[in-house]
Amino acid sequence: MSIEGAQNTPAVRLCVSQGLIEISGRSVPINSYEFFQPIIKWVEEYAKAPRPHTNVNINFHFFDTGSSRSFIDLLLILQSVYKTDNHNVTINWFYDIDDEDMLESGYDFESIVKIPFKMIEVHRVKQ
């Protein structure tokens, strides 16, 4: 599954064979539930027969409260995979070195779902 990023919605790439979930960009959709629902359904199906290792790459530039709620729902599904024997989940949380709020958001999500996050600094070019 692949969703092209737009002005208010992130790019999404979901690949069963690689055990890969990638979300990047700005997430302020008009209806975050509607936007994230197909992604959550995909992750629910994936969780029924996950790969031995699942890589989750999150690179939000900005997200709103509605996106945050939907993202937590997605992470809670991955938490069930993480707690399953013989399945590993790695969450890579990318944040701009100058964006302390985004770093803090990563730590907040990590504390909610109890999956270790790898915090990865990036240097975004300011536009």
Task: Describe the structure in your own words.
- 23% of the residues are buried.
- This protein has 3 helices and 6 strands, in the order βββαβαβαβ.
- It is an alpha/beta fold and 127 residues long.
- The model has no long low-confidence stretch (mean pLDDT 93).
- It has one domain: Transcription Regulator spoIIAA, CATH 3.30.750.
- The protein has a 6-stranded mixed sheet, covered by helices on one side.
Enumerate the spans where pLDDT stays under 50 for 5 or more consecutive residues: none
Number of helices: 3
Give helix % range. 25-40%
User: What structural class do you assign from the helix and strand content?
Assistant: alpha/beta
Question: Which CATH architecture?
Answer: 2-Layer Sandwich
Question: Alpha-carbon distance between the termini?
Answer: 29 Å
Overall average pLDDT: 93
What's the domain count? Answer: 1
Order of helices and strands: EEEHEHEHE
Number of strands: 6
The largest sheet, given as strand count, sense and whether it forms a barrel, is:
6 strands, mixed
- What is the general shape? globular
Rg for CA atoms: 14 Å
